[in-house]
């Protein structure tokens, strides 16, 4: 059986668990927001009742609001307000993650910050900022990404960097670690993130070879016509391509040689890479499109004529084939939709946006779930409860666990062998 790259991607958790249509994505967010708002109202009501009861037992005069028959209404965040606030904190996360965003940032590879951003975006599909404030999650997401992307820092060094260079004067190791299990639960324990960066670099190499007239770059369906097309033919076709007409184009003003063509390819790569480093991360692109679609969409924004020519080389030259035409049109429509999303993305700290963020942050302060504010305390309580449960167990149970452990080790597999389902087949990943 021959597996294509598409077959391999469809087997990943990113495709199976984190790919959506625009309508389903909006529905999930609306449902998450509604459920969170309901829980927040109930938690705040319990908190007010508990506070009033404690005040009465201590002989204090109840607050004026306690004399009213109705409590003040809880004004919860809307999905749009949650999205705007989350994007603000994700932008902050990006400024921490790489020196390309800030000279005082962590010197991590771009994949670390990109993975951290996707962890946060995935987490807030099933959780709301009203339950877990983003400022309590983003540092943990970045720390987790350093481990999954093989750029690990010790938690001591990581928290020290946040305190000394990122302005988080009170950040402690406990605050970095406390939300980690909650975050991994929200991620459904799936840590793999497929990015479009590698595909873009591969496209750059291929286009550069085509621009130089390299015959090795002609292993493409469009030129599989008995060897009649040469590297020089491809180079001449690329030289004849019109230049982009948008104001953001930063390549040569005229393309008359292989050197000019190579500069044009390089300019397109630079602009596309910038889109992947911010616009692709802070929009829903990862939820709606595959990595290949994202980088090709970014290239369409960067240099549409060049990208359309490159795209055309991926299909057989038989233009009369209606099946091929329909497939090309379908794929191109998806790429254009992705390009539109990336092109229209804009995040500027305008005075109006700053005021709106201040308003939303104040609103969140009043509708934040009081049961989830102290994540460090909650984490400590969970650990303390587990320790107490272990200490209260009888010696026979402890001995049984020790015997099972020794038996597994004696059998040579400390992990107990493969998991089996009821029908005897390997257990499918959830």
Condensed summary:
It contains 20 helices and no strands. With 430 residues, the chain is mainly α. GO terms for molecular function: cyclin-dependent protein serine/threonine kinase regulator activity.
Describe what you observe in this structure.
- There is one protein chain.
- The protein has 430 residues and is mostly helical.
- The protein contains 20 helices and no strands.
- The protein has helices spanning 5-10, 13-18, 22-57, 79-97, 110-126, 138-148, 155-165, 173-177, 180-186, 197-211, 231-239, 258-277, 279-282, 285-288, 291-302, 304-312, 322-344, 351-367, 375-392, 395-410.
- The two termini are 25 Å apart.
- Mean pLDDT is 86; it is low at 64-69 and 420-430.
- Pfam families: Cyclin_C_2, Cyclin_N.
- This is B-like cyclin.
- Interacts with the CDC2 protein kinase to form a serine/threonine kinase holoenzyme complex also known as maturation promoting factor (MPF). The cyclin subunit imparts substrate specificity to the complex.
- GO terms for molecular function: cyclin-dependent protein serine/threonine kinase regulator activity.
